Amino acid sequence: MSLDDLVATWLRELEQLLPDLPVVQRRELLRDLEAHIASERDDRPGLDETGLLEILERLGDPQAIAAAAYEEAGLGQTEGRAFAAAVLTAATELTTISPARWSGRAVVITPAPPVLDPKPEAWRPPAAEQPSPCSGRAYVGGSRPGSAPFGLPPAPPPPLPPRWSGAPGKPGKPGLAGMPWGVVAAIGAAFFVVVMLVGCAGTMLLHTSPAEPASGPVATADPYAPGPQPAEAGVDELPIDPVDPATVVPDPADPETVDPTAVAPGPATTE
Amino acid sequence: MADVAQLSTGLRRGTLEFCVLAMVEHEDRYATEIVRSLGDEASLAASEGTIYPLLSRLRRAGWLDSKWSESPSGPPRRYYSLTETGRAALEHFRAEWVSFRQTVDRLVGTGAR
Fold it and tell me: Which residues are paired to B64 by β-bridges?
């Protein structure tokens, strides 16, 4: 990966962490950072990857920068945004950013010869807070979200229990896709109940004859109500609903109740 | 004490921006220069990248002005200058800060004995 690609990847990673930042501020921030990196690179002729990583390290963790950008924009760092950022970071590192790149960086940085260390020891965060060479220091405006650092792939997820991983279940309890038989039985029972409910509902619908006169008041001007069907009578010949139109309360949410042709007030009945 | 880590953040909050204003009080400075200087201050412990959103906010607030200028060598640079509003804010902070600092020194016992 060339140095330009490394910078582009870093900026892209940051940009993906700023979906909720106003576009003007997002572009401004990315342009400022790009100019910063360009300026730093220009000041260091013959810069190699290690030097570029040092520049990026001083800039800080993209997540810390994103948190600062949100806070300075008055948007704060919500839980949902933090979650989205974590997901985006994970997705980015799984797709856009090849693991080889990170492993390459780790190889370069992990030995950490003193000449590569850009900061005095006193600047370094505690060992527990040094997940990556580019984690930078804490954001001055707020708490830094704990997240996958820039520079190293995220920690592998904890192994799933064997019964959910698709691996064979425990000896003597093999189930569908490794699930225990109890779970399979519960799913089957639930499916059976749903099928029964659907069947009952269908039966009830079939027993409701369309020719059967409606019993009791029908408070709608349903064109499918007993009597001449609108399709046969036409719009101008819609029958008067047996229900007093005055009792029909127009419901704005129901277009049929506000439709003058559906309610068929006076003028329609005189024609 | 989990709050110890928040102490520095709390102390920096609301003061770092005036450090930025003071940096451009007498002469315009370009962004990388400002950011680099603040990043070199150990007690501020600010990563350079987090300074840019602060610069952006100060500019939107009208305390800083900025303009892009060609560099004699290298890429264009964004220069920041202090506006009159920013200058007034800085002066106000200085007056408040002295009083605030003296009060805290007296109460906490960190003043001259």
Answer: B82
Give pLDDT tens digits for A59-85.
999 999 999 999 999 887 555 556 555
Size of interface A-B (CB pairs under 8 A): 110
* DSSP H/E element including A217: none
Contact with chain B for residue A30, Cβ under 8 A: no
User: CA angle B97-B44-B93, nearest 5°?
Assistant: 20
CA dist A188 to A169, A170, A196, Å?
19, 21, 12
The predicted structure's pLDDT at residue A48: 92
User: Could you report the predicted ipTM of this complex, rounded to two decimals?
Assistant: 0.88
Cα–Cα distance between A146 and A171 in angstroms, integer? 40
Question: Does B71 reach chain A within 8 Å, measured CB to CB?
Answer: yes
Q: Which residues of B touch A36 (CB under 8 A)?
A: 31-32, 35, 48, 52
Average pLDDT over residues B10-34: 92
The amino acid at A77:
Q
Q: What residues in A contact B29, CB-CB < 8 Å? A: none
Lowest-pLDDT range of A40-49, A170-179, B23-32: A170-179
Q: Is A84 helix (H, G, I), strand (E, B) or coil?
A: helix
Helices H / strands E in chain B, number of each: 5, 3
